Amino acid sequence: MEKIYTRTKTIQEDKVSGFCPGCMHSTVMKLIGEVLEELDQVQNTACVLGIGCCGLHMDYMAYDNITAPHGRACAVATGIKRTNPGTLVYTYQGDGDLASIGLAETLSAANRGENFSVIFINNGIYGMTGGQMAPTTLIGMKATTAPKGRDPKEHGYPMHMCEIMNQLTAPYYLERTSCNNPANVRKTKAAIRKAFMNQLEGKGFSMVEIVTNCPTNWGTDALGSLEYLEQNMLKEFPLGVIRDKSLEEEGK
Questions:
Q1: What is the pLDDT of residue 252?
Q2: Alpha-carbon span 144 to 223, nearest angstrom
Q3: Of 15, 3, 23, 86, whose CA–CA distance to 226 is shortest?
Q4: How far is Cα 106 from Cα 229, in angstroms, rounded to an integer?
């Protein structure tokens, strides 16, 4: 029998995922590992993990990583990349870490055009810290800090980070993807690969926003969370390329 799939060696062999059933964190980290192997960059990579469920990956990753203080991943990545310009550096952050606590660090790094990549996991809620409302929580979506649902008059509106960064001059590549079906999993892998290639080619700041689910804090099961994602999250956060300067360069 021909073996057609081998688990990426970037995940420690003796570890079993501790993420909730249906969570997409494991899928995304597998895709990142596959891309690093295909680019032969595993030994040349440093990952800066955000706090929360993103930080749990420190137990599974088989290559260099560091966990930043809450919200400071882009600041830490800036320091690592500037002092080690030949290293492939990426951050792995959730919506609370990137868009709330770390909003200043994130936008400042993007505005400077720092030459590293950001993998942004957007599940619309704080995961490990207790299901609080996040900057990306949908209108009417319930959270522990918004038990009646997000009310724009009290809490404001969901933040669209790709579109916000698209107002800046420096970012080179911004794309929003998901992992809700096989086709989108392939698109997500291609987007991660492009973000890493942009960095290796010295093109500057790239971010891949991945719209994901959180069955536990959404109060549903794995299948129910996929339905909610497809019926609600993807309407608020439509998938696609927001900016790709390489297309502009080709046009010229």
A1: 57
A2: 22
A3: 23
A4: 25
User: Do the beta carbons of residue 173 and residue 195 sit within 8 Å?
Assistant: yes
Amino acid at 91: T
Per-residue b or e along 88-117, where b marks 16 or more CB atoms closer than 10 Å to that residue's CB: bbbbbbbbbbbbbbbbebbbebbeeebbbb
Yes or no: say if 21 and 222 are a contact pair by the CB < 8 Å rule: yes
CB 242 within 8 A of CB 174: yes
- The fold of the 25-251 domain, in CATH, is Rossmann fold (3.40.50)
SS (H, E, C) 181-196: CHHHHHHHHHHHHHHH
Q: Which residue, among 215, 214, 197, has the nearest Cα to 206 in the 3D structure?
A: 197
Amino acid code (one letter) for 244 = D
User: In the chain, where are the structural domains located?
Assistant: 25-251
H or E, element range at 244: strand 240-244
pLDDT along the chain (252 residues), means of 10: 86 85 93 97 97 88 94 97 98 95 97 98 90 94 94 96 98 98 97 98 98 94 96 97 90 63
Strand ranges inside 20-132, DSSP E: 45-49, 65-67, 88-94, 117-122
Tokens of 158: 């969901």
- The pTM (predicted TM-score) of the whole model is 0.95
